[in-house]
Give the backbone structure.
Amino acid sequence: MSIVCRHQTARSGVNESDSYQEANRRAWDDLVARNSVFARTATDEECAHPLVSLDSRGWLPGRVDGMKVLCLAAGGGWQSILYAAAGADVTVFDLSPEMLALDTREAARRKLAVRTVQGSMDDLSVFENGAFDIVHHPVSTCYVPKLEPVYREVARVLRDRGLYISQHKTPTCMQISERDPRNRYVLGISYYHEGALPAVADTSYRESGAVEYLHRWESLVGDLCRSGFVIEDLTEPRRGDPKAKPGHFKHRGMFTAPFVRIKARRIASQIVSHEPPRLWVPDGAQDQLGKSDE
Ligand SMILES: C[S@@+](CC[C@H](N)C(=O)[O-])C[C@H]1O[C@@H](n2cnc3c(N)ncnc32)[C@H](O)[C@@H]1O
């Protein structure tokens, strides 16, 4: 297969004045320089059985050859290489040029075709409507302040009945600030925290230098449904180990699930409304109704 590693910058580009994007681009470029485990490329063994490596749950179709796959915020040469090894037509989109350079390098080394595009996941305007059959989106929505624009863009670039597999840090994972002297984990950040998260003492599930945000369940799941998706499955990948010592991320993983993985289907005919339902109520009763809704 010919090597087609095209590196492109999304039309709107990365707005340098957007501090979260700039900080996160820098943080991820640094993680590559420090050989982070998150920048681990696919191995020969994994490439021998690419769909098994990508999809232990059986969420993908039996074959993906010829399918158009968007690996979203998935730089680093893992997902893109495995999909390409399985015969898919792959585009990998990421904020970090250094992460994308790993995709380019690995694709060239393995003589696979992978297209790389740099940009921020909340603006996919570089892609046409319905351009992809599958969007595969590893943990990364913690790096954007709002989820709804991301889901809206994914819904737009997926064809009708297309598959959206995404993984996210859970709200509880983002709320934990420290471990107390009795090795219990403290929810030191409000569930309703708005804006960039403060620095915390327990950094097991935080990346140094990155600006991160908490997304509540009503956004992680609710915004997904409101954006025109139907959820087909949801899992909580295990990271806990009962033998892990306090201070290890696997110890903390025994107390709360750090991640949620969602299988969703784009259903274009779904009635989508971002308006809250309107219900006529007698004058003066609105407040009470609002309270009962909380
Ligand atoms: C945990 S890594 C995921 C990729 C990795 N291959 C994996 O297997 O987990 C998170 C990725 O999100 C990217 N990222 C962070 N903010 C982003 C944004 N606003 N738009 C697109 N990608 C972003 C980072 O550059 C990084 O490559």
Summary: The CA atoms of residues 226 and 274 lie 7 Å apart. The mean pLDDT is 90. DSSP finds ten helices and ten strands in the chain. The chain has one domain: 7-169+209-293.
